[in-house]
Amino acid sequence: MTSEQEHKISTVDAALVPYVWPRVEPILSRALVHSNDRIDRKSQFDSLINGTDHLWVITKGDEIVATVILQIATYPTGIKMLLCLFCAGKDFALWGDDLHEKLVSFAAENNCTGMELTGRKGWTRLLRQWNWKTEYTVFRKDIDYGI
């Protein structure tokens, strides 16, 4: 297999986000839709360029096939967790194992005690292979103001 055919997982430095954003945003927007307006394109971009969030890209040759948005959270008790805020793209089966391995390493390098992912139910099946467990379910109700 040539390097053109292999998937590569790379971190994007905050200073480089403005340059890759035009290629990342269309992929990421598919995941942002599921935030129910909690996070929009501008707020996500701002969180990436100010270093609050981390952008990873999965490429195949010159094509960006997927994006991952991460955040390191420190809870009031001092526990640090690596949060996977968004993951969007294609061909997950081809790079998912490598991504998971790199996420575990990144979490350990940053002294995180674990990782958390908030996502749709389909993630349950995918994450089970790496011994993730479902801890809770989020419920939501919209308020109708009659407007």
Top keywords for this entry?
147 residues, alpha+beta, Aminopeptidase, five-stranded mixed beta sheet, 4 helices, 5 strands, 34% helix
Topology diagram in text:
Layout: E1 7-12, H1 17-32, H2 41-49, E2 53-60, E3 63-74, E4 80-89, H3 92-109, E5 114-117, H4 122-128
Parallel strand pairs: 4-5
Antiparallel strand pairs: 1-2, 2-3, 3-4
Helix pairs in contact: 1-2
Describe the structure.
With about 150 residues, the chain is α+β, with helices and mostly antiparallel strands. The protein has one domain: Gcn5-related N-acetyltransferase (GNAT) (Aminopeptidase, 3-Layer(aba) Sandwich). The chain contains four helices and five strands; from the N terminus they run βααβββαβα. The protein has helices at about 15-30, 40-50, 90-110, 120-130; strands at about 5-10, 55-60, 65-75, 80-90, 115. The protein has a five-stranded mixed sheet with strand order 1-2-3-4-5, sandwiched between helices.
